UniProtKB/TrEMBL annotation:
Residues 1-31 form the signal peptide. Pfam families: PG_binding_1 (PF01471). Residues 90-146 form the Peptidoglycan binding-like domain. The keyword rRNA processing does not apply. The keyword NAD does not apply. This is Peptidoglycan-binding protein. Keywords: Signal. It comes from the Bacteria.
Amino acid sequence: MRTTILPRMAAVAAAVLVSVTGLTGVANAWAGENAGAGENAGAGETASIEAAAYPHCNGSKAVRKGSYATTQPYYTATGSRNCQLTRGDSGSGVRALQSAMNACYGTGLVTDGVFGENTEEAVKKVQIAVGAEVDGYYGPETRDAMRWPLTGGGGCSRI
């Protein structure tokens, strides 16, 4: 029991540290040291601590870049694009991500608005292509590193 509960508790505590201090490195180190003993301790449990500090994207909205625009996931309660998408999420935010990865990276996803195994694998491929941390989660780091399709023939560009 200790090997499964303590790493999760450490990851949650580290996520709180990130949200309060903004110091991801310190939180990652703390979670790794305090995850408890056992084969799962610290391994993979802290990989997405920064993402854990963000709410799940539950909508999509237009974002402007000069005279062009694109559609990106966002969290409706705050209007912030600082949110995450992970396996099991669904909705217009996932659909916007899938459309962008198809248009700019040729991932060939079904644009169904469901973040499943294929979307997770596509996110990993995009993360590799853009030099972001490869974890299969969509969050601010991936959003800022990837290209987005622009309306009106603007091609694909970082926003």
